[in-house]
Structures are given as C-alpha cells and as structure tokens.
Amino acid sequence: MHSMVSFNLHSVTSSFFIFLSAGILCSHKLTSDRGSQSQITSIKKNGIVLLVTVSLSLWVMYGEYRSVMSHFYFSQAIYYQKRKEVSRSLEYSLKAIQYQPYNSKYLRYAGNMYWGTGQIALAKDYFKKAKLLSLIK
Fold first, then answer.
1. Helix or strand or coil: residue 82?
2. Which residues contact 97 (CB under 8 A, 6 or more apart)?
3. d(CA 97, CA 106)
C-alpha cells in the first residue's frame, strides 16, 4: 500500500502485486447471512493471501533497491574518475559491486581502476570474474 502513495506505481512488479492483493481482497464479499465461522475462515484466507503478496512485493522492491543503489555508486565512481581521483573512484566502484556482485561492467571497471593504481594481481582477478560472467550470459 505504501507504494501506491509513495511513488506513483512506477515499478511494474510492485504494481502487479499490490493490485493482485487488492483484487483478491475485494473479490470476496462478507454478507450477513453467512455464519460467523465462515467469516473468520474467509478473513484468515484473505490475510494469508495478503501476507504472501506483501512479502513478494517487498522482496521484489529490495531487488530494485539494490539495483538503484549500485547504479548510484557506479555513477559516483565515474564522476570521481573524471576528476582524476582514482582512489575515490575505486571506492565507489567497489560499493557498486557490493550491491550487484554479478555485474560484469562494474567488475571490469574496478579491474581498470586497480590496473591504473598498479595492483595488477587484483586487476586480473576482477577481469577474470567479468569475463566469466560475460561467458555465462
């Protein structure tokens, strides 16, 4: 429900789960001619569906958060590279890798930074990881 008021449902996956749960919850009417036991069972079922849907939404949103943060740190790395601050650039590229460790572009960039600082062994390790990931894709 938070994403409905927070950021205009720009995420397709979050929107899907929110509207799926809202549709399931709204599809079942509680009428007065049903017994109270039936109403309690219905409420429990709807609660379970809502819990699962919200859990999936949070899981997907966490993945999007990691993607956004890695992109932010990588853009910071490029910014500091342009300012010729290699150590800061390397620091931010490593932060980007922490959020997305399987991004071959980030690994190649870190390899280039290590190569530029003369740390050839570390550079080769990052290049090998990036090459392996490129082959897997």
1. helix
2. 70, 103, 106, 107, 110
3. 6
Q: CA 95, CA 110: separation in Å to the nearest integer?
A: 10
The sign of the torsion formed by the CA atoms of 30, 53, 58, 11 equals negative
Given a contact cutoff of 8 angstroms between Cβ atoms, the answer to whether 119 and 110 are in contact is no
Q: What is the pLDDT along the chain (137 residues), one digit of tens a residue?
A: 555 556 555 666 666 767 777 777 776 655 445 556 666 777 787 788 778 877 877 777 787 888 889 999 999 999 999 999 999 999 999 999 999 999 999 999 999 999 989 999 999 999 999 999 888 76
The whole-angstrom separation of Cα 58 and Cα 55 is 5
* The one-letter amino acid at 135: L
Look up residue 90 and give its amino acid. L
Calculate ∠ Cα 44-49-50, nearest 5°.
95
In angstroms, the CA 17 to CA 124 distance is 43
Q: How far out from the chain centre does Cα 107 lie?
A: 18
